[in-house]
Structure formats: structure tokens, C-alpha cells
């Protein structure tokens, strides 16, 4: 009898452990528990700032801006694909200059207001000259860039004080951005069809207005009796510290690899977009189809962030970058098959193949980008982590700028225009070959994993400085003070 009772207890315990309902609940609440853990470790205001800037401003607003700008350049300004590609990348210049405004929240508030005004001008002026349109788009992009860099500084600081959570913080940024982009792209095609690209810019005033809100909520610590005559000296000291850091091989070698990995991956996206929407020489996708294609691509990006967070975040940088760079080059062959219409020979419709192509490209692109972000946060020395992270992001932006302008020049040389796409396949083939060339330079990347330190001991400072740094978190100070003081 006793043995029978023990067997019943053991069998019931096994049933409870294998209860599928419990497993589903654990799976459902796992992201919530993860967010709670980050909020406890970093403070809830940090998580809030990341979600607002990356999710709403960068993800949602970036998705609406991308589709709206594509159709604005094509249908309103009527420029060639090579010109549209070069003009659009002028918007990266605010990201290059954001290095100098990383700690200026007043500057962020000003540019946030300027972004709202710029979007309203684009939406209300029917015959705006191309130069003024580019100026307005650049001003709006500057406001978003300053907000991004401000949050990036918080991420870099917390990555140093909590090195074991560096990958988790980058995953939070990536997930927020991907979910926001998924929502934005899902509604972008519908809104472009209903209100046009100019109406889309009016709608964009809302997420750009949130840049202003973040600039207000973020509060820089006030230093009493601060001597503003020392500002120039502080700039000189910061510059010297950055130069000293960059001279270490452990720092400049990964920076060089990051630039080359972006610059050599030529961007011919505008040529593909014009081909997608051409009804004579291309598949002639509608606005709704374009928006839905991008939204499914965001699902791929989201899956990439989830895959990195749960499976790949602890793998060594060099090993992970080898496979992601290789897959990135191979994924470009899907574009080549689509342009050559090889998919039709296998009975696969153009739109279905284009959606699969977009999702696979976004997934692999996210997997390639995530370890580079974590590595960048690991390269930032204490004291100038925000400014140095902005410098690293500027290097990446220069790489993207080189890639896009190189792709624009390639489209121009191969005579890919608004209506001629005969050599688009050759541009894609050249791009795919160049995508795998960074594999030859992987020796520049350290073999370390994300949980270990990359910087030399002399940069990290003394043990006392590191110990004191571990108790320091970045918070949205105005919110923290107003709420915590009421308790």
C-alpha cells in the first residue's frame, strides 16, 4: 500500500512537471519576467526610455518615414533611383554630427521641436523644392539621431557597470525597434495609399514629437558651481582620451572591421524599389503590398533579435560574425533570382518570393548587426562611454554612407534608371560578391565572448573605479526624482 501511494505521488508530480499548460504560461510570462529583471537591475526609467526611443521613434517612426520618403522621392520629386539613394543617405549626416551633442539634452529638445516643424512643412507644402525637402528631412533626422545617441550613451554606461547584461540591453533595443518597425510597416502602405506620402509626413510629426518628450524627461545631473570656462578643456581631455583609446589594437582593429563590413556591402535598395513598383519591367507591387512586404521583413528582424537573445548571445564574436557575414552574402542571391525571374520557373509568385527574400535578409542582417552592437558597447572606456559609443556609431554610419553612395554610383554606371533595369542583376551580383569579402578581415575581431572584457586593463582603470562603477545606473532622472521622492 505504501509503495502504491508513493507511485501515485511520483506519477502526479511527473504530470505536474510535464503539464503543457504550465509550460505555455512560463513561455508567455518569460518576456515579462525578463523586462522586470532589467527594470530592477537598471531602473524602470531606463527600460522606458529605450522602448520610447527605439520602439516608437526609431522603429515605428522609422518605418513610416522609410516608406513615405521612398514614394515621396519617386512620385512627388520624380528623381532617378541612383539620385534618390544618394539624397536619402544625406540623412545620415546628423548621425555623424551627433557625437558632439551626446550630452546636450537642451539640443535634443530643440531638434525634437525642429523635427515636428519640418514634418509639418513637408506635409503642407505641395511644391516644395528638392533642396528644401532634403533640408527638412535632414533636420527631422537630426532630432531623432540626438535622442538615439542619448539613449545609446545610457546603454554604453550600463554595459560597463553590468557587463553580464550587455547582450540583454542590446536585445531590448533590437526587440523594441523590430516590434515598432513591424507595426509601422504594417500600416505604412495603407496610409500612403489613403493620404499619400505628404500626408504620411504629417503623421510622422507624432513620433518625432516624442523625441521632444524624451528630451524633457531626460534630465542631466546638475553640477553645482560648475565652471563653464572649463568646457573647452573638457573637450580637449575627452578628445585625448578617445585618441588614446583608439590607439590600442584591441580597439582600432574592430572599428576598422565594422567600417569595412558596412562599406563593402553596397546598397542598391533604391534600384530594387523602383523595379518592385514598375508595372512594365517589374512586378508592379502596390503601396499596400510594399508596406506588407516590409512588415514581414520586420518579423524576420524580430526573429533575429529573439534568436540572438536566446541562442547566440554567448557565442564568441569572431565565430558568430563569420557565419552571419557568410549568410548575409548568400542571402543576396535571393534578390538576383527575383530580378532574373528564376522564381517563376519554379512556380513561385513574385510577391511571395519577395516577401520571403525580405524576411530572410532582415533576419540575417539583424543577426549580423547585434554582435557588432554588443562589441561596440564593450569597447567604450569609463568616463567617456557615451561620447565614445557615439564615435563608434558614427564610424558605422560612415560605412553605411560609403555603402549607399557606392551603390548609387554603381546604379548610375550600369544605367539603372526609373524605367531601365536591364543591368540591375549585374549590380546585385557585384554587391553579393563584395558582401563576402569582409570574411578575409575577421582577424581584426577579438575572439572574446560578450561576457568577457575586451578593453586592456589600463583603459578599464583601477579595481576601485570598476567597483564603484558597478553600483551606478543610468536613469531618466526627472521621472525618477518626481516618483521616488513621493514614496
Helix and strand layout, with pairings?
Elements: H1 2-17, H2 20-42, H3 44-76, H4 81-88, H5 93-97, H6 105-124, H7 130-161, H8 166-217, H9 231-246, H10 249-263, H11 269-276, H12 287-312, H13 317-331, H14 333-339, H15 342-345, H16 350-378, H17 385-413, H18 424-435, H19 457-460, H20 463-469, H21 477-484
Helix pairs in contact: 2-3, 3-7, 3-8, 4-11, 4-17, 6-7, 6-8, 7-8, 7-17, 8-12, 8-16, 10-17, 12-16, 13-16, 13-18, 14-18
Structural account:
The structure is a single chain. This protein is 76% helix and 0% strand. Helix 3 crosses helix 8 and helix 7 packs across helix 17. It has one domain (40-221, 235-481): Growth Hormone, Chain: A. By secondary structure, the protein is mostly helical. The chain is globular and about 60 Å long. It has helices at residues 2-17, 20-42, 44-76, 81-88, 93-97, 105-124, 130-161, 166-217, 231-246, 249-263, 269-276, 287-312, 317-331, 333-339, 342-345, 350-378, 385-413, 424-435, 457-460, 463-469, 477-484. The model is unreliable at 5-9, 11-17, 96-104 and 462-487 (pLDDT under 50). It is built from 21 helices and no strands. It is a multi-pass membrane protein. It comes from Rhamnella rubrinervis. Residues 1-20 are annotated as: Disordered. Belongs to the major facilitator superfamily. Folate-biopterin transporter (TC 2.A.71) family. InterPro entries: BT1, MFS_trans_sf.
Question: Could you list some keywords that capture this structure?
Answer:
mainly alpha, Growth Hormone, Chain: A, 21 helices, globular, disordered C terminus, BT1, transmembrane helix, Folate-biopterin transporter 2
